[in-house]
Amino acid sequence: MRIAIIGGGAAGMMAAATINETNPEAGVFLFEKNNELGKKVIISGGGRCNVTTGLDDIREILARYPRGGKFLQSAMRAFPPPAVRAWFEAEGVPMKCEDDLRVFPISNNGHDIVNTFTKIFSDTKTEILLNHSVTGVKKISDGFVVELKNQEPINVDRVILTLGGQAYRQTGSTGDGYSLAESLGHHITKLAPSLNSFIIQEKWAKELAGVSFANATITASPRLGGVGVGSTMLTNPSLPSPRRESSGPFLFTHTGISGPAVFALSSLIAFEDYGLKKPMSITIDLLPDISNETLLFELKQAMNLSPKKTLKNTVRNFVPLSVAEVICMLAEVPPEKKNAETGKQMVGAVLKLLKQLPLTINGRGSGDEFVTAGGVELTEVDPRTMESKLTPDLFFAGEILNIDGFTGGFNLQASWATGKAAGVGAGS
Question: Is the sign of the CA dihedral 264, 270, 272, 276 positive or negative?
Fold first, then answer.
């Protein structure tokens, strides 16, 4: 049996390694248009490679996928995060789980993850074809013809498409797999960038660059007519505009806001059309662990205990001074306003800003992972084997599918799991 795997990223490498293990007699051709395997894997997590998540509960893990969670159930249960961690450790790459439940190689070096696969392939029948650009895949009666740029075509029995999305174009992820999938009868859902930071319109936000919060809740109320989750779009103007919110760490940057809570929200609103011409309003609850009533009580208590203290310096009991200054500025509280001189209206304005700080998004910035939301329509793929329901002996794995998760190792985990399933399916 001859199997072509097109795309030498996480899913493609795992699919090849799985075939080597389950069917060592199969001839595997791993096509990669770059001059090395796993370029995107190597740079993920800032070069440290966030291999997977430290979470073990499958339901909790699947909830981290805005698109594709249900489809992933079978593959995820067959190759869950604990099994992924154990697999790499068995191959000689010890893992560590950090406090935020992100899992990295102890070496903090993404090359170690890719080298694991190159070592495996050196002892198997897998033929690594670097600098090979696949221009087309044609179905014939007894298999497929893989067409190559400036090289002779190769005939194979089965094909696994593991080309990534359109993120990190410098690594070769330019969306080539979508056209190959369409040429073989598949449909591609709407595509959009995900896991990005936000560029903020308000000029005062730049003054807070570097200020971070360990926990906050960020909420967006997308406009009517453009809310998308997966391939489903809400276009009925009579429907209420749904809120999207996420909680976790975030920080102010020189251009806006970034961090896990921001990346998660960007994933939830990936299909929203926002930018300079269509800015979107969001609010940030800077103190989500304190109710409005408790915060009001504590704020008033602090003011009563220090009547001669400025309100600005009292607010800094709850947030950093630079943020307190912005809060008071937005609430139109004079900088030297004493607590004893502050009326209910000003206190109410400050309280509202602490719980609903308004910001305006007018662009997408870079992120830690920056994946593509959307991809091959999941109803056309068998979730157990990753085989096409439309074209026999064609399989898919990785980001080419309409699957994307939050930051924290979930996207690589999906690639390992679907790559494993496709390898088992194609190799059997």
Answer: positive
Look at the pTM and tell me if it is higher than 0.85: yes
SS3 for the chain, per residue? CEEEEECCCHHHHHHHHHHHHHCCCCEEEEEECCCCCCHHHHHHHHHCCCCEECCCCHHHHHCCCCECCCCCHHHHHHCCHHHHHHHHHHCCCCEEECCCCEEEECCCCHHHHHHHHHHHHHCCCCEEEECCCEEEEEEECCEEEEEECCEEEEEECEEEECCCCCCCHHHCCCCHHHHHHHHCCCCECCCEEECCCEEECCHHHHHHCCCEEEEEEEEECCCCCCEEECCEEECCCCCCCCCEEEEEEEEECCCEEECHHHHHHHHHCCCCCCCCCCCEEEEEECCCCCCHHHHHHHHHHHHHHCCCCEHHHHHCCCCCHHHHHHHHHHCCCCCCCEHHHCCHHHHHHHHHHHHCEEEEEEEECCCCCCEEECCECHHHECCCCCEECCCCCEEECHHHECCECCCCCHHHHHHHHHHHHHHHHHHC
**Joined tokens for residue 239:** 């429907």
Residues 356 and 370: their CA atoms lie apart, in Å, by 27
Q: State the pairing for strand pair 95-97/102-105.
A: antiparallel
Q: Please tell me the distance from the alpha carbon of residue 245 to that of residue 402, in angstroms, as a whole number.
A: 22
Give bridge partners of residue 211 from the DSSP assignment. Answer: none
What's the Rg (C-alpha) of the chain? 25
User: From the CB of residue 337, how many other CB atoms can be counted at a distance below 10 Å?
Assistant: 17
Query: Tens digits of per-residue pLDDT, 200-220?
Result: 999 999 999 999 999 999 999
- Of the listed ranges 26-35, 119-128, 233-242, 348-357, the least confidently predicted one is 233-242
pLDDT value of residue 45: 87
Q: What's the rounded Cα separation, in Å, for the pair 39 and 111? A: 9
* Rounded distance between C-alpha atoms, residue 148 and residue 135, angstroms: 5
Tokens of 388: 């096409």
